[in-house]
Specification:
The protein is an alpha+beta fold. About 50% of the residues lie in helices and about 15% in strands. It is built from four helices and three strands; from the N terminus they run H-E-H-H-H-E-E. Strands 1-3-2 form a three-stranded antiparallel β-sheet, with helices on one face. Helix 2 crosses helix 4 and helix 3 packs across helix 4. It starts with 13 loop residues before the first helix and ends with a strand.
């Protein structure tokens, strides 16, 4: 059965989508809040929330799993030292998407901010 197999089609191929999620999540971890299209924000939410759930328990195995998803030492370090302990008691819902009223200048795409709560 195909239950829960939906993927947001934000790129042209699965490899492009994976690299886009890596880059967006690294930027979100570094800056705390980023501006992107609403489709990319919605696609990023489950990816980053699974990483934050990993970061709530600081172990070598979890750090290695997070590194395999991100491929960035600085992002993994910040995820496990700052972001993970902040959400220790929270059972889920670590991110928030705020829609922006104005569209993007070039193609009028719907924009939004995604950031940690």
């Amino acid at each position: 059965m195909r239950h829960q197999k939906h993927k947001y089609n934000v790129g042209s191929s699965p490899s492009h989508r994976i690299s886009l999620m890596k880059n967006l999540s690294i930027s979100l971890i570094e800056h705390g809040k980023i501006k992107s299209t609403q489709a990319k924000c919605k696609a990023l939410r489950p990816f980053i929330e699974k990483l934050v759930t990993l970061a709530k328990v600081d172990s070598i195995a979890n750090r290695r799993l997070a590194y395999s998803k991100l491929n960035s030492d600085e992002a993994v370090k910040k995820l496990f030292t700052e972001i993970g302990p902040k959400f220790k008691a929270t059972p889920g819902g670590y991110t928030r998407i705020v829609k922006v009223a104005d569209g993007r200048v070039g193609d009028n795409a719907k924009m939004g901010y995604i950031g940690f709560v």
